[in-house]
Amino acid sequence: MNPFLDLLLFLATLLYSYLEAFVKLFVPVKRKSVSGELVLITGAGHGVGRATAVEFARRQSRLVLWDINKHGVEDTAAECERLGATVQAFVVDCSKREEIYSAAEKVKKEIGDVSILVNNAGVITTADLLSTQDHQIERMFEVNILAHMWTTRAFLPAMMNNNHGHIVTVASAAGHFVTSFMVAYWLGKILEIEEVVEALMEGILTNQKMVFVPSHLSIALLSEMLFPERALVVLKKLTNAKFDAVIGQRSTQ
Ligand SMILES: NC(=O)c1ccc[n+]([C@@H]2O[C@H](COP(=O)([O-])OP(=O)(O)OC[C@H]3O[C@@H](n4cnc5c(N)ncnc54)[C@H](O)[C@@H]3O)[C@@H](O)[C@H]2O)c1
Fold first, then answer.
1. What is the number of other CB atoms lying within 10 angstroms of the CB of residue 195?
2. What is the pLDDT of residue 168?
3. What is the DSSP pairing of strand 116-119 with strand 38-42?
4. Span 130-139, pLDDT tens digits
5. Domain membership flag for residue 165
6. Which of 40, 41, 48 to mutate to test the pocket of ligand 1 (most atoms within 8 A of CB)?
7. Is the distance from the beta carbon of residue 72 to the nearest atom of ligand 1 less than 6 Å?
8. Per-residue buried b or exposed e for 127-144, using 16+ beta carbons within 10 Å of the residue's own CB
9. pTM to 2 decimals?
10. Total of domains in the chain
């Protein structure tokens, strides 16, 4: 390819995208229907996963719910059924690849092709590196990261065959920011579940690529890339970021 033509193509695409985004500011946002979609949510037994399941149930989706916690996932299923949804609940430990693959096979064989996959299950440990146990670090990677690969590998082929599908990753913004004691995961201010799920559903229904909660975190991300380290340290002190952490085996705030 001609480098000049490549550059021209890039600039034309950039200009077109900015113009399109500008025009869209004045056009009412379209929300897609998720009625009848087969939605699989991991970590559906509590918190964000449970509230997301309820939102899909309200929108007449069919649900497959996974969680390591039997009572939690069954409670969520019962709540969704009360809203009229068809629900199948499974006890699945998302830290185990083989368990994910065998549960996924069961879903595909007995229920059908998942069209919306919400990778939400997550575990946290807030401590400095030396106080965090090796197995805690491994588990965070297994549940918060590797499980997403296994579920996606299991359900993406059918989505591609059907040319229809949506994969959602629920994760901490801590993955973008560097803050003390965020060694394996940074907990930060606990967000209100309703606030998170409202933004999550809006992002899904309007096909947004990335949603930050709270939304001003996207500006913080920009500052992380632009500001010098010393200025960032002062900024973090000013914004008074606090979290419970175990430091040197002592609990502190
Ligand atoms: N709540 C927040 O402030 C916040 C902030 C940033 C990111 N997040 C992310 O949102 C997601 C949900 O968080 P939450 O606050 O609802 O957490 P939560 O602890 O309330 O719920 C997590 C659910 O995942 C399940 N789970 C844990 N390990 C599992 C495993 N191995 N297999 C299957 N299920 C498992 C738990 O049983 C629980 O039902 C997580 O991925 C978390 O990282 C939450």
1. 11
2. 97
3. parallel
4. 888 999 999 9
5. yes
6. 48
7. yes
8. bbeebbeeeebeebebbb
9. 0.89
10. 1
Whether the CB-CB separation of 86 and 63 falls below 8 Å is answered with: yes
Catalytic residue among 16, 18, 101, 185: 185
Residue 155 Cα to ligand 1 middle (Å): 21
Distance from the CA of 124 to the center of ligand 1, in angstroms? 8
pLDDT value at residue 238: 78
Q: Is residue 86 part of a domain?
A: yes
Helix (H) or strand (E) holding 180, with range, is none
Q: Is the CB of 47 under 6 A from ligand 1?
A: yes
Q: Is the CB of 217 under 6 A from ligand 1?
A: no
Instruction: For residue 125, count other CB atoms closer than 10 A to its CB.
Output: 18
Residue 9 lies in a domain: no
Determine, yes or no, domain membership for 83. Answer: yes
Q: State the residue range of the domain holding 134.
A: 33-252
pLDDT in tens, 81-112: 999 999 999 999 999 999 999 999 999 999 99
The verdict on the CB of residue 165 being under 6 Å from ligand 1 is: no
What's the rounded Cα separation, in Å, for the pair 197 and 48? 6
**Nearest of 162, 166, 64, 77 to residue 106 by alpha carbon:** 64
Query: What DSSP string describes 89-153?
Result: EEE--TT-HHHHHHHHHHHHHHT---SEEEE-------B-TTTS-HHHHHHHHIIIIIHHHHHHH
Domain holding 181: CATH number?
A: 3.40.50.720
Low-confidence ranges of the chain (pLDDT < 70): 177-185, 187-190, 239-253
Q: Write the residue with the smallest CA distance to atom 41 of ligand 1.
A: 122
